[in-house]
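Quiz preparation item.
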């Protein structure tokens, strides 16, 4: 792939801007500065760098973010900064979007991608991708509440009760809950309908992909092939 086209694809601006980056010797390919914007670059396993920052060649940009509290997932954040502000500009320029939404005050695993197929597979209600949350509750927990969640609770505007795929007490006020839908404020509404209240919410996992213990709030990393497999995603 032509170097200037490769840079454009990775979010480094217009073709003209990318050409200028190369001509100003700000781009290295596999460790060597390349000043020819039209050089034909082999992409498998490629690592290029711009101003010394290394980037892997990525057909799609698919990432995980440890979402901190105080960030909105909506496309047009209104009251708080948007989660995409936590990413480097080239990734934002590629048009990545959060997969589903976490509330502004929810923390934990958020997937972000510009791969429409991945986004669709994970968001589609039909696939029933499990999402596991740790909820800190206002009142102490008991098994009766867990049982109500497992049997199903009726939420406003929903025609039928919604049941947790899994629920267990993880501490006096800590509830681990897995749901397969992605309804608005779903966990908070389910816990309220079961007779308690969520004071804090953290997403631990999506499918078999858990938030890595060493990924700090606000940090992101690329999804590996193994991560994608854990999400049950085998791209066509
Ligand atoms: N359920 C909620 O209530 N909030 C979230 O952010 C995610 C799931």
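Solution:
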């Amino acid at each position: 792939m032509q170097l200037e086209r490769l840079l454009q694809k990775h979010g480094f601006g217009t073709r003209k801007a990318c050409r200028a980056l190369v001509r100003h010797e700000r781009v290295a390919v596999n460790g060597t500065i390349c000043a020819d914007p039209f050089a034909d670059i082999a992409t498998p396993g490629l690592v290029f760098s711009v101003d010394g920052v290394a980037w892997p060649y990525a057909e799609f940009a698919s990432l995980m973010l440890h979402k901190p509290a105080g960030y909105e997932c909506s496309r047009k954040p209104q009251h708080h900064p948007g989660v995409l502000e936590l990413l480097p500009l080239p990734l934002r320029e590629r048009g990545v979007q959060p997969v589903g939404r976490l509330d502004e005050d929810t923390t934990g695993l958020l997937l972000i991608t510009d791969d429409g197929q991945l986004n669709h597979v994970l968001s589609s209600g039909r696939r029933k991708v499990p999402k596991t949350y740790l909820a800190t509750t206002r009142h102490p927990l008991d098994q009766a509440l867990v049982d109500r969640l497992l049997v199903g609770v009726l939420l406003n505007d929903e025609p039928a009760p919604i049941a947790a795929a899994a629920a267990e007490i993880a501490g006096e006020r800590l509830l681990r809950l897995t749901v397969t839908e992605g309804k608005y404020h779903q966990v908070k509404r389910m816990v309220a309908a079961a007779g308690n209240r969520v004071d804090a919410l953290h997403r631990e996992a999506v499918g078999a992909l858990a938030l890595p213990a060493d990924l700090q709030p606000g940090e992101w990393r690329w999804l590996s092939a193994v991560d994608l497999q854990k999400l049950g995603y085998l791209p066509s």
